[in-house]
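Researcher: Hi, I'm a grad student and pretty new to this. My advisor asked me to get structures for two proteins we've been looking at. I'm not sure of the right format, so I'll just paste the first sequence and hope you can take it from there.
Model: That works fine. Here's the first sequence with its structure tokens right after it:
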Amino acid sequence: MKLKALVIASALLVAGVANAQESYVTNSFNSNLFVGLSAGANVGLDGLYGAVDGGKMQTGVGLGLELTVGKWFTPEFGARFDLTGIGTSLGNGNLPYYGAGVDLMWNASATFAGYNPDRVVSVVPYIHAGYVKSEGRGAGFGAGIQFPIALSQKWAIVPDFRFNGYGDALLLGNGSGVCASVLALIGVQYTFGKTTTFQTAAALTAPLAVAAAEAEAAKAEADAAQEKAEAEAQALAAEKEQLLKENEALKGELAGAAAENEAIVKNLMNTPACVYFEIGQATLSVKEL
């Protein structure tokens, strides 16, 4: 039992050292998924070139809504798909605005401060690529940053800010150059799946290490029991051999005693003897015996 406890303790120590290195494994497909819903302002920007050259830049604000579905593959990196609407404006004109895109996300807090499932506020920058339909339609590219505020392991409030750049024809349907939109949203996010946290490689392999250690300890105990049984068998065999020798010696002593008795009997039979009976008696008297 002492050997078994020592082996298991050694395995757990090795697992603990590996755990200190914080090497987290990529999770399964149905783990660390999330869905979010946000609302806020969608600011339209036009005439960026003109503003740089001294011209006037047109701006406007519309209602921004966003639905996101995504997954964290590691504590640091994830991706999400988003649907964005419903409008923006430029000058005095309201514009429709509908888009779909993909964001590649980086949890900078996990990179620089380490993974902590109990962290309250994180900093998550991301890059964005998508397709937008307004007065025109086309691809847009941008970048953003969000600051998830954890309410629990599964729920969070997420302020989200993103800048998207487009061609003029995309928002207005005519012209050339660059226009843009700035989304300032706040929403809720729900994390779900088989697990909502990450495990280290050591945490996953620790049960295997303990099982292997227990198997090794059990084997050691079995070997020790076998050695003990073999030693006891050898001791019994030696005792049996000693008893056989003693038995042979007793047989020899008995044979010698029998031969001696036989010699005595023969000697008595060959020696003349004279006995006397009392008158009128057919048996020897006690004094003759």
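Researcher: Oh nice, that was easy. Here's the second one.
Model: And its structure:
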Amino acid sequence: MPTPLKTTINHEVKPLRINFRSVAIERDITRSSWGPNVLDRTCVLVVLRGQGEFMLDGVNHKVHAGQAMAVPKGVPAFYHTDFHAPEAWSLCWVIFDGEDANQVLQHCRFTVARPVVNVEDTEPFEEIVSHMLAYADRTYSNAMMLQGLMLAFLSTLVASVTSVAEDIDPKDNKYLDAAVNYIHEHINEPLQVNDVADALYISRSYLCTVFQDHLKITPKVFIMKAKMFQAAEDLRHSAASIAQLAERYGYSSPFAFSKSFKRIMGMSPREFREQFTEPDDLVVELFKPPTARKNQRSYASTGAEPAAR
């Protein structure tokens, strides 16, 4: 006969002041993009499969399966799939707010300068999010379950982070931040690399070295990407013609603008505008060839997020 045994845990836990807002998962998306945009909540995303690019506060990061990303409240962000990657993109995320949201990001080892971390295993995150999506009905018990599962998602992340990006030299970081800010402040001008270097009182070669060392991209390509990301938003949310956008972003002709846009976004401005059918969604499928696998997207929310997927 087994010996009677009682096991207890006595540990006062202060509740985190964060609130669940939404959860979502997308599977096997061939082309998707969100932003540039600014959230009024905090978002944590985990890349389950595939790869893409994630830009936070103007700084570009390559991301792939096995990594998590953070979009803090009020910080400009943009991401898109790698349009040429052999494996389709699968991603899950939770959105939350509250007084302790930044504290949670700190415990996950996220910072604005280092918003991408590596995790041991993505399977637990996919399982938790799939479980959360079963509680979409707006009931009191479901709200409690979603809050608890969100905490499970975040605690799993805190426990499974293995490493973060390397620190940037403080001097380089100062020039990098200043350069990114200058580029975004002058995004509608025919901006050249020399203009940025002159504004920062540094040489063009040093500016190129800083960008290449820390962003793995040249200032020239960064400027082009920044312009194209902003132009993509204009295509989604305005009726501006290609000629008007070319003039707005400092291009000599609509042809030159369209060529740069296709180089960065993988399709022409006209194709981009036609294929963006859900401009208010956090994730929008841009292209689905007839032979593509069936895309699956799921979403649950308290109703506070306007289709924030």
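Researcher: Is there anything I should tell my advisor about the second?
Model: You could mention this: Residues 19-166+293-301 form a domain with the Jelly Rolls fold (CATH 2.60.120.280).
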